[in-house]
Automatic annotation (TrEMBL):
Source species taxonomy: Eukaryota, Viridiplantae, Streptophyta, Embryophyta, Tracheophyta
Stated name of the protein: BnaA05g19440D protein
Entry's family note: Belongs to the UDP-glycosyltransferase family.
Record keywords, A-Z: Glycosyltransferase, Transferase
Organism this protein belongs to: Brassica napus
Entry-linked InterPro entries: UDP-glycosyltransf_plant
Superkingdom of origin organism: Eukaryota
GO molecular-function terms, A-Z: UDP-glucosyltransferase activity
């Protein structure tokens, strides 16, 4: 039986392409996986990218496009606009997992972009775990960790200073 993962990348093109690359690597490693990438589309700027991706769908990798409100800014597309699309995402996943189909995969979890954390609620409704996917490179994440370490060290040193 195939295990189904649902990936939900941020609407930004860079996040979408990083997610697709990660998905392809996962599928190369395990043929028991089946992955659906739910693409949230807010404008026509990404239409050609989405069209080329959906044309490449196969039995192990599918793309589901959900359209949101036209022309939000990239900043607003990552918060309240994504929140509004939760019912559409839920319906798309439910349709994918129709229990009456004999080849219906077993839902294993949701992998959500760092800007789509509101979709964790949808995973909770299906009773599956959710995982966060950071599209940042390792160098950036190390920098953030180092900055936190420096901050914590400064706080530790300052607590012994009386004046």
């Amino acid at each position: 039986m195939k295990m189904e993962l649902i990936f939900i990348p941020s609407p930004a093109t860079g996040h979408l392409m990083a997610t697709v690359e990660m998905v392809e690597r996962l599928l190369d490693e395990d043929n028991r996986l089946s992955i659906t990438v739910i693409i949230i589309s807010f404008n026509s700027k990404t239409a050609s990218t989405i069209a080329s991706l959906t044309a490449a769908s196969n039995t192990s990798l599918r793309y589901e496009v959900i359209s949101g409100e036209e022309n939000p800014t990239e900043l607003t597309a990552t918060d309240s606009h994504v929140q509004i699309l939760k019912p559409l995402v839920k319906d798309a996943v439910a349709k994918l997992l129709e229990w009456t189909r004999p080849d219906s995969p077993r839902l294993a979890g949701f992998v959500v972009d760092m800007y789509c954390t509101c979709m964790i609620d949808v995973a909770d409704e299906f009773g599956v775990p959710s995982y966060l996917f950071y599209t940042s490179n390792a160098g950036f994440l190390v920098l953030l960790l180092h900055m936190q370490f420096m901050y914590d060290s400064a706080e530790e040193n300052n607590k012994y200073d009386m004046y």
